[in-house]
Small ribosomal subunit protein uS15m
Amino acid sequence: MNSLNRLRPLVNGGAGLISRNYAFKSDLKIKWVRPEKIPCYKPAKSGDLVPLPALKGGELMKDFRQSNELDSADDSVKNLFTLEHNRRREMLEVFKDEMVKRVQRHELDYGSIEAKLGLMTAQIRSLQEVMEKFPRQSAAKVHLKELIDKRKRFLRYLRRWDYRRFEYILEKLDLVYKPYPAEFHWITRKDSLRKLTDIHCDEIKTTRLQSYRQLLESQQLDFLAKKLENLQFIRKEQQECKVPVTVTPEQIQAVKKQYEELKEKRKVLEEKAAEEQD
Protein backbone atom coordinates (compact mmCIF):
# COMPACT_ATOMS: atom_id res chain seq x y z
CA MET A 1 0.00 0.00 0.00
CA ASN A 2 2.83 2.39 0.83
CA SER A 3 4.46 1.76 -2.53
CA LEU A 4 1.20 2.55 -4.27
CA ASN A 5 0.92 5.83 -2.40
CA ARG A 6 4.15 6.99 -3.96
CA LEU A 7 2.51 6.95 -7.37
CA ARG A 8 -0.14 9.57 -7.94
CA PRO A 9 -1.98 10.60 -11.12
CA LEU A 10 -0.97 13.81 -12.87
CA VAL A 11 -3.40 16.69 -12.35
CA ASN A 12 -2.98 18.22 -15.78
CA GLY A 13 -1.83 15.11 -17.63
CA GLY A 14 -3.72 12.64 -19.72
CA ALA A 15 -5.49 9.56 -18.52
CA GLY A 16 -3.28 6.75 -17.29
CA LEU A 17 -0.16 8.94 -16.81
CA ILE A 18 1.53 8.70 -13.44
CA SER A 19 4.47 10.48 -11.80
CA ARG A 20 6.79 9.49 -9.00
CA ASN A 21 7.51 11.75 -6.03
CA TYR A 22 10.96 10.35 -5.18
CA ALA A 23 14.25 11.29 -6.80
CA PHE A 24 16.05 9.51 -9.58
CA LYS A 25 19.76 8.78 -9.31
CA SER A 26 20.28 11.21 -12.16
CA ASP A 27 18.84 14.00 -9.99
CA LEU A 28 21.71 13.68 -7.51
CA LYS A 29 24.81 15.76 -8.15
CA ILE A 30 27.04 12.72 -8.45
CA LYS A 31 29.30 12.11 -11.41
CA TRP A 32 31.53 9.08 -11.69
CA VAL A 33 34.52 9.04 -14.00
CA ARG A 34 36.43 5.81 -14.49
CA PRO A 35 39.94 6.26 -13.00
CA GLU A 36 42.79 6.26 -15.43
CA LYS A 37 44.63 2.96 -15.58
CA ILE A 38 48.26 3.34 -14.52
CA PRO A 39 50.65 0.59 -15.69
CA CYS A 40 52.45 -1.27 -12.95
CA TYR A 41 55.90 -0.20 -14.21
CA LYS A 42 55.15 3.52 -13.82
CA PRO A 43 56.83 5.34 -10.88
CA ALA A 44 53.39 6.11 -9.41
CA LYS A 45 52.82 2.35 -8.96
CA SER A 46 56.37 1.15 -8.33
CA GLY A 47 57.04 3.70 -5.56
CA ASP A 48 60.04 5.52 -7.05
CA LEU A 49 59.90 9.15 -5.97
CA VAL A 50 62.92 10.39 -7.95
CA PRO A 51 63.58 9.71 -11.66
CA LEU A 52 66.91 8.86 -13.21
CA PRO A 53 69.28 11.85 -12.82
CA ALA A 54 70.47 13.80 -15.84
CA LEU A 55 73.64 12.80 -17.65
CA LYS A 56 76.80 14.14 -16.01
CA GLY A 57 78.66 14.86 -19.24
CA GLY A 58 81.86 16.36 -17.86
CA GLU A 59 82.80 13.45 -15.60
CA LEU A 60 85.24 10.75 -16.63
CA MET A 61 84.20 7.14 -16.95
CA LYS A 62 84.39 4.98 -13.87
CA ASP A 63 87.51 3.01 -14.92
CA PHE A 64 89.55 6.11 -15.94
CA ARG A 65 89.04 8.45 -12.98
CA GLN A 66 92.38 7.57 -11.38
CA SER A 67 94.40 7.49 -14.57
CA ASN A 68 97.66 9.47 -14.31
CA GLU A 69 98.05 9.67 -18.08
CA LEU A 70 94.78 11.59 -18.50
CA ASP A 71 95.96 14.27 -16.07
CA SER A 72 98.61 15.44 -18.51
CA ALA A 73 96.60 14.73 -21.68
CA ASP A 74 94.96 17.31 -23.94
CA ASP A 75 91.34 18.33 -23.51
CA SER A 76 90.41 16.65 -26.78
CA VAL A 77 91.77 13.37 -25.45
CA LYS A 78 90.02 13.77 -22.12
CA ASN A 79 86.70 14.35 -23.87
CA LEU A 80 86.97 10.92 -25.41
CA PHE A 81 86.78 9.38 -21.94
CA THR A 82 83.93 11.52 -20.56
CA LEU A 83 80.41 10.23 -20.09
CA GLU A 84 78.81 12.45 -22.71
CA HIS A 85 81.04 11.03 -25.47
CA ASN A 86 80.43 7.38 -24.60
CA ARG A 87 77.55 4.97 -24.37
CA ARG A 88 74.64 5.39 -22.01
CA ARG A 89 75.73 2.22 -20.28
CA GLU A 90 78.75 4.02 -18.82
CA MET A 91 76.53 6.62 -17.18
CA LEU A 92 74.30 3.84 -15.80
CA GLU A 93 77.31 2.12 -14.28
CA VAL A 94 78.15 5.35 -12.44
CA PHE A 95 74.56 5.69 -11.23
CA LYS A 96 74.45 2.06 -10.06
CA ASP A 97 77.67 2.58 -8.12
CA GLU A 98 76.22 5.70 -6.47
CA MET A 99 73.01 3.94 -5.46
CA VAL A 100 74.90 1.01 -3.97
CA LYS A 101 77.24 3.31 -2.04
CA ARG A 102 74.25 5.02 -0.42
CA VAL A 103 73.21 1.89 1.45
CA GLN A 104 76.19 -0.49 1.49
CA ARG A 105 77.49 -1.61 4.88
CA HIS A 106 81.17 -1.12 3.98
CA GLU A 107 83.29 -0.21 0.95
CA LEU A 108 83.43 -3.75 -0.44
CA ASP A 109 79.79 -4.64 0.26
CA TYR A 110 78.04 -5.65 -2.97
CA GLY A 111 76.17 -8.77 -1.81
CA SER A 112 74.02 -7.66 1.13
CA ILE A 113 70.29 -7.10 0.78
CA GLU A 114 70.85 -3.33 0.98
CA ALA A 115 73.35 -3.36 -1.90
CA LYS A 116 71.04 -5.55 -3.98
CA LEU A 117 68.14 -3.16 -3.39
CA GLY A 118 70.28 -0.19 -4.44
CA LEU A 119 71.37 -1.98 -7.62
CA MET A 120 67.80 -3.02 -8.48
CA THR A 121 66.55 0.53 -7.91
CA ALA A 122 69.12 1.92 -10.34
CA GLN A 123 68.14 -0.66 -12.97
CA ILE A 124 64.42 0.01 -12.45
CA ARG A 125 64.78 3.76 -12.92
CA SER A 126 66.89 3.23 -16.01
CA LEU A 127 64.28 0.93 -17.56
CA GLN A 128 61.49 3.32 -16.61
CA GLU A 129 63.20 6.06 -18.60
CA VAL A 130 63.51 3.66 -21.56
CA MET A 131 59.80 2.78 -21.35
CA GLU A 132 58.85 6.45 -21.38
CA LYS A 133 60.65 6.92 -24.69
CA PHE A 134 59.89 3.51 -26.23
CA PRO A 135 56.67 2.14 -24.68
CA ARG A 136 56.43 -0.75 -27.18
CA GLN A 137 59.59 -2.53 -26.09
CA SER A 138 58.06 -5.68 -24.69
CA ALA A 139 61.35 -7.24 -23.55
CA ALA A 140 62.27 -4.17 -21.46
CA LYS A 141 58.74 -4.07 -20.09
CA VAL A 142 58.84 -7.69 -18.92
CA HIS A 143 62.29 -7.25 -17.38
CA LEU A 144 61.13 -4.08 -15.59
CA LYS A 145 58.09 -5.84 -14.13
CA GLU A 146 60.23 -8.70 -12.88
CA LEU A 147 62.66 -6.29 -11.21
CA ILE A 148 59.84 -4.35 -9.52
CA ASP A 149 58.28 -7.56 -8.17
CA LYS A 150 61.65 -8.81 -6.96
CA ARG A 151 62.42 -5.54 -5.18
CA LYS A 152 58.97 -5.60 -3.59
CA ARG A 153 59.61 -9.11 -2.25
CA PHE A 154 62.94 -8.00 -0.80
CA LEU A 155 61.32 -4.98 0.86
CA ARG A 156 58.50 -7.10 2.25
CA TYR A 157 61.03 -9.49 3.78
CA LEU A 158 63.06 -6.62 5.23
CA ARG A 159 59.93 -4.94 6.59
CA ARG A 160 58.97 -8.11 8.40
CA TRP A 161 62.33 -8.93 10.00
CA ASP A 162 64.15 -5.60 10.37
CA TYR A 163 61.82 -2.60 10.27
CA ARG A 164 64.47 -0.01 11.18
CA ARG A 165 66.68 -1.09 8.27
CA PHE A 166 63.59 -1.11 6.04
CA GLU A 167 62.85 2.54 6.90
CA TYR A 168 66.52 3.41 6.37
CA ILE A 169 66.48 1.87 2.87
CA LEU A 170 63.32 3.75 1.89
CA GLU A 171 64.81 7.05 3.02
CA LYS A 172 68.17 6.58 1.32
CA LEU A 173 66.79 5.31 -2.00
CA ASP A 174 63.79 7.72 -2.15
CA LEU A 175 61.22 4.93 -2.24
CA VAL A 176 57.66 4.37 -1.06
CA TYR A 177 56.66 0.81 -0.21
CA LYS A 178 53.39 -0.11 -1.90
CA PRO A 179 52.38 -3.67 -0.96
CA TYR A 180 49.96 -5.81 -2.85
CA PRO A 181 46.30 -5.32 -1.84
CA ALA A 182 44.91 -7.82 0.64
CA GLU A 183 41.77 -8.33 -1.48
CA PHE A 184 41.52 -7.69 -5.20
CA HIS A 185 38.28 -6.44 -6.72
CA TRP A 186 37.40 -4.94 -10.07
CA ILE A 187 36.51 -1.27 -10.29
CA THR A 188 32.89 -1.17 -11.41
CA ARG A 189 30.53 1.72 -11.98
CA LYS A 190 27.87 0.26 -9.68
CA ASP A 191 30.13 -0.07 -6.62
CA SER A 192 31.71 3.32 -7.23
CA LEU A 193 28.32 5.03 -7.53
CA ARG A 194 27.20 3.34 -4.33
CA LYS A 195 30.23 4.71 -2.47
CA LEU A 196 29.78 8.18 -3.96
CA THR A 197 26.10 8.14 -2.97
CA ASP A 198 27.01 7.23 0.61
CA ILE A 199 29.56 10.04 0.72
CA HIS A 200 27.00 12.47 -0.72
CA CYS A 201 24.40 11.45 1.86
CA ASP A 202 26.92 11.81 4.70
CA GLU A 203 27.78 15.32 3.50
CA ILE A 204 24.09 16.27 3.41
CA LYS A 205 23.59 14.84 6.90
CA THR A 206 26.62 16.71 8.27
CA THR A 207 25.53 19.99 6.68
CA ARG A 208 22.01 19.75 8.08
CA LEU A 209 23.23 18.82 11.54
CA GLN A 210 25.62 21.77 11.55
CA SER A 211 22.89 24.17 10.46
CA TYR A 212 20.52 22.78 13.12
CA ARG A 213 23.23 23.11 15.77
CA GLN A 214 23.82 26.73 14.78
CA LEU A 215 20.08 27.35 15.05
CA LEU A 216 19.96 25.85 18.56
CA GLU A 217 23.03 27.81 19.65
CA SER A 218 21.44 31.03 18.44
CA GLN A 219 18.36 30.28 20.59
CA GLN A 220 20.36 29.18 23.64
CA LEU A 221 20.60 32.64 25.23
CA ASP A 222 16.85 33.26 25.02
CA PHE A 223 16.19 29.77 26.34
CA LEU A 224 18.38 30.33 29.42
CA ALA A 225 16.73 33.69 30.09
CA LYS A 226 13.28 32.09 29.89
CA LYS A 227 14.40 29.19 32.08
CA LEU A 228 15.76 31.55 34.74
CA GLU A 229 12.53 33.51 34.73
CA ASN A 230 10.41 30.36 35.06
CA LEU A 231 12.50 28.97 37.92
CA GLN A 232 12.21 32.21 39.86
CA PHE A 233 8.46 32.33 39.25
CA ILE A 234 7.97 28.70 40.36
CA ARG A 235 9.94 29.20 43.56
CA LYS A 236 8.02 32.38 44.38
CA GLU A 237 4.63 30.73 43.81
CA GLN A 238 5.56 27.68 45.90
CA GLN A 239 6.62 29.91 48.79
CA GLU A 240 3.42 31.97 48.63
CA CYS A 241 1.22 28.86 48.46
CA LYS A 242 3.19 27.28 51.34
CA VAL A 243 3.85 24.03 49.49
CA PRO A 244 7.14 22.08 49.38
CA VAL A 245 9.68 24.11 47.43
CA THR A 246 11.23 22.07 44.61
CA VAL A 247 13.43 24.82 43.16
CA THR A 248 16.52 25.55 45.22
CA PRO A 249 18.54 28.79 45.15
CA GLU A 250 21.55 26.79 43.95
CA GLN A 251 19.67 25.75 40.80
CA ILE A 252 18.68 29.35 40.09
CA GLN A 253 22.23 30.54 40.71
CA ALA A 254 23.68 27.86 38.39
CA VAL A 255 21.34 28.85 35.54
CA LYS A 256 22.10 32.52 36.15
CA LYS A 257 25.85 31.86 36.07
CA GLN A 258 25.51 29.90 32.83
CA TYR A 259 23.46 32.72 31.32
CA GLU A 260 26.04 35.35 32.27
CA GLU A 261 28.98 33.30 30.94
CA LEU A 262 27.24 32.67 27.62
CA LYS A 263 26.30 36.35 27.33
CA GLU A 264 29.89 37.41 27.96
CA LYS A 265 31.19 34.88 25.45
CA ARG A 266 28.79 36.15 22.79
CA LYS A 267 29.90 39.71 23.48
CA VAL A 268 33.58 38.81 23.01
CA LEU A 269 32.84 37.00 19.74
CA GLU A 270 30.88 39.99 18.43
CA GLU A 271 33.76 42.35 19.28
CA LYS A 272 36.26 40.09 17.46
CA ALA A 273 34.00 39.91 14.41
CA ALA A 274 33.67 43.71 14.38
CA GLU A 275 37.48 44.12 14.59
CA GLU A 276 38.02 41.71 11.69
CA GLN A 277 35.54 43.60 9.55
CA ASP A 278 37.26 46.93 10.29
